[in-house]
Specification:
269 residues, single chain, 4-stranded antiparallel β-sheet, disordered N terminus, mainly beta
Length: 269
């Protein structure tokens, strides 16, 4: 009887952590087929992180039903979140850490070692990654447990000696990444705006020449806690030089158009 009760409890806990895949949420189970992937290795090339831009301008506010267009300056926004979300410094220089998304909605972790190209690894069960910087080796692993909600699973970076140099829950990383976006308010709702180079689909993944634009809405619960992020992702090419009509949170609609020189986004209602 006690054995049956324990089994039932374990099954209920497992079900609680896998009950539903929320829209926009990172579904670790759906991509379990990649669990045996080799992760990524160092990428050739030299990357100099851009200077941190000044604080973003005040949010753009659209009254319900407003017809006026508004212009958002995109200068400095491309891949800004990769070096503005989180980091650690263990004596060899600053390593930047961030979350990012692809156009399919999969979550990726971006690691930018000192003087190197950003390294991208998909967040999935069994993920692991290794790289070298400053004469030291590093590894990234996902500590996943059925006793945690998906986004409470832990990402951890260790150096070659096994010392933990960075550790975050997935939700903590994406909260920090969310805050690195440019704030805009559309239809009375606050979003964060991102423009990023998409992963190139290889392993290791590299930032490709294809660009994506993402609006993220943060569903805070009644206590002000982060309950769910809703992602609205679009290929930049679909709105460059022409208006793209999109559906946003709550059925809101907006028109998005990027200037041909990629310097500005026009949002219309």
């Amino acid at each position: 009887m006690i054995r049956d009760m324990k089994a039932a409890l374990l099954l209920s806990l497992f079900a609680a952590t896998h009950a539903r895949a929320l829209p926009g949420a990172i579904d670790l189970d759906a991509i379990a087929a990649g669990a045996q992937s080799a992760g990524f290795s160092p990428i050739a090339g030299h990357y100099v992180p851009p200077a941190q831009p000044p604080a973003p301008p005040a949010a753009l506010v659209y009254a319900s039903g407003a017809q006026d267009d508004a212009r958002v300056d995109l200068a400095g926004l491309l891949d800004r979140h990769l070096t503005a979300a989180d980091s650690f410094d263990d004596g060899i220089g600053r390593t930047f850490v961030s979350g990012t998304l692809d156009l399919a909605g999969d979550g990726w972790m971006a690691v930018t070692p000192p003087g190197q190209t950003p390294l991208l690894v998909k967040i999935e069960r069994g993920m692991s990654a290794q790289w070298a910087a400053g004469g030291r080796g590093y590894s990234l692993d996902l500590d996943a447990s059925i006793f945690r909600a998906r986004l409470n699973n832990i990402l951890e970076i260790k150096d070659g000696s096994g010392r933990t140099v960075w550790r975050r829950r997935i939700i903590e990383l994406f909260q920090k990444t969310f805050e690195a976006g440019r704030p805009v308010v559309i239809g009375g709702r606050s979003y964060r705006l991102f423009v990023a180079r998409m992963p190139d689909g290889q392993r290791p993944a590299r930032p490709s020449s294809r660009l994506g634009l993402c609006l993220i809405y943060d569903q805070l619960d009644g206590w002000g806690r982060h309950d769910q992020y809703d992602f609205y992702r679009f290929p930049l090419e679909a709105m460059t030089g022409r208006r793209l009509d999109v559906a946003l949170y709550g059925g809101d609609r907006a028109g998005l158009e990027v200037s041909p020189d990629l310097s500005a986004l026009t949002i219309s209602r």
